[in-house]
Design brief:
Number of helices: 9
Number of strands: 22
Structural class: alpha+beta
Radius of gyration: 24 Å
Mean pLDDT: 83
Largest sheet: 10 strands, mixed
Oligomer: single chain
Low-confidence stretches: 1-32, 328-335
Number of domains: 2
Length: 418
């Protein structure tokens, strides 16, 4: 009886955790269930590359095995060589830890007599795999077996010929997750007469005047500091963060609540775990990204809200970033994520991460959050203390890779100690 009661408490705590924690062709009813209908094609230097990613159900139908369960995701490629020389596809460019076809055929050993894959199953995977050498005038089609990435699959296809390496970069939506920003109508988020385009002086004034902190649905009280500004189109934002290894987040549904609860109980990883809604501009975040560690209790996560202003024609987003470092108990919600109180460190982590990922074109700082020293911290909605210098990081993100030596610092303001 005591064990049953404990299990119930854990289940309730896991559910409450959800409420306390703080472009490629879209997937539509017409192309869901048909991975080739979602394919993307790029052409360069006489080489045509078409890429598609089957979802879990499609993968099971092709290979008669639930490869997603084993963390394996097949990527279908079609390579047409219209150049004058031989070319080769480099599977390690798509995934340095890619799986060989026969290796994948042996994942289902427990389902096969004797613990060995049969010749017919080996042949199925081998024959479906991609022949990586493509002669002039040839077209090759097949699969490369990569590590599982649900939501948006980001990968490179590297093609090598004599003295030349050509890289094709793909971002492909894979059905199966309830991603928060898929249903946002970016073009109609604001009426045309609400949007103002600002110059340097006006945008700095605007950013400094925005709310210091997130709030809740009733706009009562202050939450985490609004310590981030992102400048970029929705495609730039989406591409830059995915390239930098940030995962999308799912919306809170019955299914995602169950997955979160399971991860909470087991302490396992849930890369796409929902984040609670915090409010800016009178609405919850438009999009959220996260970088999880190997358990649900620890992750970096950020929220973004598109503002009603643009800077030289480019959308401006207000944002909030913090680092979850554990779980603690509270009287109000039973459990909640505990954030790292040094929110400036998390802000600077993001700057370095985006720079090293070549997703950053420029950066600057503006004032706007309320300074709080370490010996006089402020608190968020769940009672976690935080301290900050009160500056907001401004990042110009880009879909086109930028070398770290070419990143520009815009000297609007300089936080103390930097």
């Amino acid at each position: 009886m005591k064990q049953t009661g404990l299990r119930i408490i854990i289940l309730v705590a896991g559910l409450l955790l959800l409420n306390a924690c703080a472009s490629p062709p879209p997937v539509t009813p017409d192309n869901a269930g048909d991975y080739r209908a979602r394919a993307q094609t790029q052409v360069e230097d006489g080489i045509s590359v078409t890429a598609a990613v089957p979802d879990r159900k499609e993968t099971r139908a092709i290979f008669k095995s639930d490869l997603y369960k084993y963390g394996v995701q097949p990527v279908w490629l079609e390579i047409t060589n219209s150049s004058q020389g031989n070319v080769s596809v480099l599977p390690a460019g798509l995934d340095p830890g890619y799986f060989s076809p026969i290796e994948v055929a042996n994942l289902d050993l427990k389902l096969l007599p004797g613990g060995n894959s049969s010749p017919s199953i080996d042949a199925l995977f081998f024959n479906q795999s991609l022949e990586t050498r493509v002669q002039p005038g040839e077209t090759r089609r097949g699969f490369i077996f990569s590590a599982l990435d649900e939501g948006t699959k980001a990968f490179n296809v590297d093609i090598v010929s004599t003295g030349l390496l050509t890289t094709f970069t793909f971002f492909i939506q894979v059905p199966g997750l309830h991603i928060d920003h898929y249903n946002v109508d970016w073009n109609n988020l604001y009426a045309a007469d609400e949007i103002r385009d600002l110059d340097d002086t006006a945008v700095r004034t605007y950013l400094a005047a925005q709310t210091c902190c997130t709030t809740n649905k009733t706009a009562k009280g202050d939450g985490d500091p609004v310590n981030l500004v992102v400048i970029g189109t929705p495609d730039d934002v989406y591409t830059a963060f995915i390239r930098a290894g940030w995962d999308e987040t799912e919306t809170i549904t019955g299914s995602t609540s169950w997955k979160t609860m399971q991860s909470f109980i087991s302490g396992g990883e849930y890369r796409y775990s929902p984040v609670s809604g915090l409010y800016v501009f009178g609405r919850p975040q438009d999009v959220a990204f996260q970088k999880a560690r190997d358990n649900i209790h620890e992750r970096n996560h950020l929220r973004l809200w598109m503002s009603p202003v643009t800077f030289k024609g480019v959308p401006v987003w207000m944002g909030q970033i913090s680092r979850d470092i554990g779980v603690r108990f509270t009287k109000k919600t039973i459990t909640t994520h505990k954030i790292d109180p040094d929110t400036d460190e998390t802000r600077e982590f993001l700057l370095e991460d985006m720079a090293y990922s070549q997703a950053l074109a420029k950066f600057a700082y503006v004032e706007g959050a309320i300074p709080a020293p370490i010996d006089e911290p402020r608190g968020n909605f769940t009672g976690d203390p935080y301290f900050t210098d009160g500056y907001r990081l401004v990042m110009w993100v880009t879909s086109t890779p930028v070398d770290t030596n070419d990143i520009e610092f815009v000297p609007w303001s300089v936080p103390p100690g930097l």
